[in-house]
Automatic annotation (TrEMBL):
The lineage of its organism: Bacteria, Bacillati, Bacillota, Bacilli, Lactobacillales. The keyword Signal applies. Pfam families: SlpA. This is S-layer protein C-terminal domain-containing protein. The keyword Cytoplasm does not apply. Keywords: Signal. Residues 243-291, 317-363, 387-433 form the S-layer protein C-terminal domain. Residues 1-35 form the signal peptide.
Amino acid sequence: MEGLILKKSTSLLFSGLLVSGMVLGATVTSTTVHADNTATTQATANVTNNVAYYDQDGNFILNKDEQGTEGSPITFAPDGYAIPTNNKAVFGGSAATVRVTVNKMISVKVNYVDQNGKLVNSEVVNGGVGNTAKLTDLPAGCNWVNDAEQTITLVQGKEYNVPVNKKVFNTVIFKTSDNTEVGRTEIFSDKVGDAYNLTSSQIPAGYKADTTSLTLQTDNNTQFVTVTKDADAATGTVTVNDQPAQLYTIYGNTITGRTLKANSPWKIFDTKVIKGKTYYKVATNEWVEASAVTVNNDTTNTVTPFTNTVKTGSTLSRLYNKEGKELSGRALGPNTSWKTANKMILNGKTYYQVATDEWVDASTVTVNGETPAEPSNNVVTINSQIASLYTKDGKVVTGRALRPGTQWKTANKMTLNGETYYQVATTEWVKASSLA
């Protein structure tokens, strides 16, 4: 990776070099356009136009200098307005004055109604009054009645009832032999009696299902499938820290003479809390303490017990399943508190479990006892030592650090487990103890 040049971050970079050898800075790429075998050197002319914006009633809104290529559409609209769907305003010649009529932004409610007249789901669609909008949030388990129903014209104060065909729906709950629920999914088909085969992504991670062949029962029915722990299924990977890691039995007892080599990677197959400490299973009856390893941000998910309370912010917090897929029509209300059962790291993002197979993005909530991030416009200076970088969860970012004596502009400040961090990049934070 040495010598790699990255594009400049628009807001957080102030100055300095990453220890990994990567230089953050702007790049300029020259382009030659070829038509057949002939190189073209004449580029389309960039022009500046004075654009006058008016609403649909002819009222003046503002004048603004816009840049673009002659003949191309003007796409900018003032705050609170939208370019009309049938926009015909284009850039003129250099220094031309162009008049653009824009539509006021509105919000309309769309109800999805099934073939029995029952409400399936609702959503709010935003756009310019008079503009057309293509509906894309089709409720799970439904089909469009026809293509024409997918497009609506936005009218102030109008509520839309859009017909959909709802399939037969069953809930499948996965339970172990001791009747412990470990997950659930939803299955759909056209009619009762249809055969359905569960996919691997629907079965809870780390488990095997006794059967994957189901038959659709009465609409809204619930089916139960027994699952067993899959000893061969890894739930994630970890890397041992700088010191060898002691191994333990399932009861937390030391296994004499058994350690993991420093900085070595290992698959993990289960997670347990033993006497208040979290352990990961790395082999048959061999467990490593969580504090001795670092969870890797790979494509698998790592789940650890996390009993706490989280609070949402001033907006809705969307919910996701264990695979990171957003759940249609499911969200937590603003400024509400929720108990958590587990914490999951999936593809580098952190989620908290607030219900069976319902997880909330950690970036949208505040954990009880942790100070939320607050805006920070400070410029910080790294002290005389290399400064490690961390994720928002306090995990070390592998292979990334800041050079001694360099300066960085910060965007946010937070306190995590009693320690202060400053945000110096989109997903990277530096400890206050590393600053001069």
